[in-house]
Structure formats: structure tokens, C-alpha cells
Amino acid sequence: MTALKGASVFVTGGSRGIGKALVEELYARGAGKVYATARDPRTVTHPDAVAVALEVTDPASVAAAAAGAQDVTVLINNAGAAVGASFLDSPVEDVRREFETNFYGPLLLTRAFAPVIERNGGGHILTMHSVLSWLALGGSYSASKAALWSQTNSLRLDLAPRGIAVTGMHMAYVDTDLAAGTDAPKSDPRTIAALALDGIETGAHEILGDDLTRQVKTGLAGDLTALYPQLTR
């Protein structure tokens, strides 16, 4: 379990959507300092947040951000991309671009901040996933999130001896720019942010943010045709 009151927290993608809600909820819970990243730090609007320019796919940008945030005890990997490239028809470069953001980005951040968190006495890493970690409906997007889920599970084992807990947050559609064109029930970003921070404070390994996500996770234990009924046609 990790206390957020007084903590120094680094949130990627902190200028909008879930990231913005995380920054707001962190300060509501008494966080001491919140670094909020964006490609353009001027888009970070919370008056108390420390705005940081960051491109998560650029190792030099990640290293510079970590060098300027040596007091961090909690890292939240929230930044992501939704390309959704087709494996058969889209340029392979589009698939790689999605993996660079959704898989390698969190890995670069974790590798940069794990030594920082360890030096500061241990702490927590939360990584935002998706229900599509377990449901192959988004081409390169779902594949990148499935790979990220595996990465998170591995890092949880690797970092536990160093005093760093790791949590994965999974959810379906959230009412953000990313899902603006989706006609389906959506969670409020503030609800997801609150659940995510609850998970940090209680030491949860994994958080399932809504009913659809819970149903899909349960479905992994069943026959594939339950998740993919088109296979029966």
C-alpha cells in the first residue's frame, strides 16, 4: 500500500482526459507535488501541477524528465495512442508507432523512474491498460495493450524486491477525446481516476474499472467463441 498524501507523483499524459482527472484527484487526496506531462506543457491547466514537456517515445526526453523529478515516489503511466492499425492492410510503420507509444513508452518511463523511486524508499507504479488488453478488436491497439499487460505483470515481479508495487488499471470506454466517436456507454474520467488511485492506496495488483471489463476478464477462462461469437459462423 502506498500513501498518496504528501507524495510526489509523476503523471504522463496529464493535460486532458483521464490524466487531467488523475492530477485533480491526486491534489484532492493531498499529494504534495504532481508532475503532469504533455508534448506541449502549456496545455497542462491545473494551477498547482508542475508541467513537464515529454515525448514518451523519445529516450532523451524521458531521461530529461526523470532527471528533473528526482523526488518522485509514484509513477502513473497514462499517456497512450489509439492508431488501431490493421495487421493485414495498414502500413507496418503504423503498427510500430502504436507499440512505440503504448508499450515502449511505459517501459522507458518505468526504467527511468524505478531507480528514483527505489532511492526515495520505494513506492508505486500504476499503468493504465484497457479492456482491449484481453479482447482483440482494435488491431495494433489491442495488441499493444495486450503486450503492455504482460509487461506490467513481469515488472510487478521484478520490482517487488526493490520496494516498488505495480498496479494495472483496465477499463472499457471512457468519456474522453479518445472515445469521442464511439457510440457506447462510457465511464466518467473522474470515476476511473478515483478507482485508479484507490488501487494505489490499497496495493491492488489489478483494477477492473467497469462491468464490461469484468465480464471480458472472466471470459478469458472460457471458450474463445464466447468472446468472439463470429467464430461460430
Automatic annotation (TrEMBL):
This is SDR family oxidoreductase. Belongs to the short-chain dehydrogenases/reductases (SDR) family. The keyword Oxidoreductase applies. Keywords: Oxidoreductase. InterPro entries: NAD(P)-bd_dom_sf, SDR_fam. One of its GO terms (molecular function) is oxidoreductase activity. It comes from Streptomyces caniscabiei. It comes from the Bacteria. The lineage of its organism: Bacteria, Bacillati, Actinomycetota, Actinomycetes, Kitasatosporales. SUPFAM superfamilies: NAD(P)-binding Rossmann-fold domains.
